[in-house]
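Feature request, filed as a ticket because there's no other form

It would be nice if the structure record came with a short human-readable summary line next to the tokens. Right now we just get the raw output. Example of a typical job, pasted below so the devs can see what we mean:
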Amino acid sequence: MSVRGIIMATYLQVENLTKSYGDRILFSQISFHINQGDKIALVAANGSGKSSLLNVLAGKELPESGGSVMFMKNIGVAYLEQDPVFDPGMSVREHLRRANKKVFKAITAYNTASGSGERKKLEKAISDMDRLGVWNYDQRMDKILTSLKFGLAGRSMGTLSGGEVKKVAIAALLLQDAEFLIMDEPTNHLDIEVIEYLEEYLSASSATLFMVTHDRYFLDRVCNSIYELEDGQLYTYRGNYRLFLEKKEERIANRAAETDKARNLYRRELEWIRSTPCARTGKSKSRKDDFNRLKEKIQLSDNERKIQINAGVARLGGKIIHCKDLSFHYGAECMLKDFSYNFQRYEKIGIIGGNGVGKTTFLKLITGELTPDSGELQLGQTVRFGFYRQEGIQFNPGDTVFDVVHDIAEVVTQADGGQVPVGTFLNRFLFPPPTHQVRVEKLSGGEKRRLYLLTILMRNPNFLILDEPTNDLDILTLNVLEEYLEHFKGCVLIVSHDRYFMDKLADHLFIFQGDGIVRDYPGKCSEYYRTLSIPESKTSERKKEIRHTPVKKKITYREQKRMEELEQMIQELDQEKAELEKVLSDPARPLEEITGASVRMGEILESLEKNWEELLGLEDQRVCCSQ
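Raw output as currently delivered:
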């Protein structure tokens, strides 16, 4: 059968879905279906209802009367929330063991059956464990965590950073083996290497995807369709991000032409409706109704606005920032070592590096929030910083949108030198008058980010420092922000995991390599990552490397002997494990033998894990010593 002749099953059918937030309608009577194998990105302006739609699909929120969400029977659905929920006292390993409900249920049943002494229950439990691959579940868990560059799984969830929580949430999603994945901003807070791993995984996966993302490279490489939510309606585009832009431009042009025609007709109808009072009493009801529909059509088009960033920039002199031999430590850890650089007018620099290597520390040193341990930092007299922090906007409980901006200034200087009231500036950032008295805590995550950006730019900075500015901002806002920054008459420092954003703006890169070392790379972000030779991180390949790579010389004799002992112990445990698996899968064995084998299997798996951790630790020492 040809590819065109294959009919894919419909995994999700949505009919007449409506969702409101107070008096505001997020979407109205939308219907769509998603077929097996579809990989769909949902894009929309902040506050349009993207997360609300995902919550309805995932069953976290109920649809309003008349709407329905129907998944194909017996398919698994997994949901990656933007803000994952977890028990802070639970270990990462225990949290992930509970991620796959079928596996957790099988483990629980197995433990119960092992203690009951009932042979039939134990046989069924073992059969379920075999069928679900539970015996290797922890190994698969470790493999995924290693690919996500996550550390020890014994840590408690409450001790993790935001980025680490996101990695655990992604691991939990992948461990569920669901046929349908719903994902809300999966790349937020992740390093670029981890994003690229997730790209490869999802691209190769047979799972059906429906996700919200602002990462345009990620979207382009993973998704084959784009859904756009605008003015409460859903528009479908089959293809990549470039095709989406082309088709959207066509749709806007067509609507503009329709609107021009409607305006001309509206003007004629308005002249007619304003004619003499005596004549108006005799006018037909149908013509008045037509007039009202025209008016609504024009108003709807007028609502299709985009953010306008035209904030002024304070004059920037010739001397910007001169750094000479700057160094800084947190305790014994070196975050910056002998850094020297003279910033030039209008340059735009991207900053990349792993977690904890000193990127945010560097930003705080530049702005004077931290004092270097040694070295010299000279700041030009005209420099005016605008520091957009990763943690976002800070506000007092009960503050309204207008309160936040009015506390900064009553008027804002524009790019042409003119001034506008702060209310007008709010309108240009898509905060119309009805939203001015809305409390900030009621805004969506993206709306808070947009308001935060407004508060930075209304101060007219000439040296912008942007620490993860793309988190939670919609693609439309990012497009406008990029256009503004491309022509920004000042300096820009950007820390971001968004490769598209960095490629578009950064002239060169500061690569934070760890131990305080910073390298100046004269190229684009994507070019730099293409040049890297990323070592394999898969546990199985690393095991093979240890077995077959001769031990190098600069470790002690005692350490070498211990490594040889561990390798021998692991080999023996692997052999015993294989024999036990035969016992556990043979229903003819006596109950006592099966029970003993299951207990011993648990001991072996625990021993293997400990031995591999010790061996890998010694291997890391060996590699470090050999360098």
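Something like this underneath would help us a lot:
The longest strand covers residues 10-21.
Residues 322 and 623 are 38 Å apart (CA to CA).
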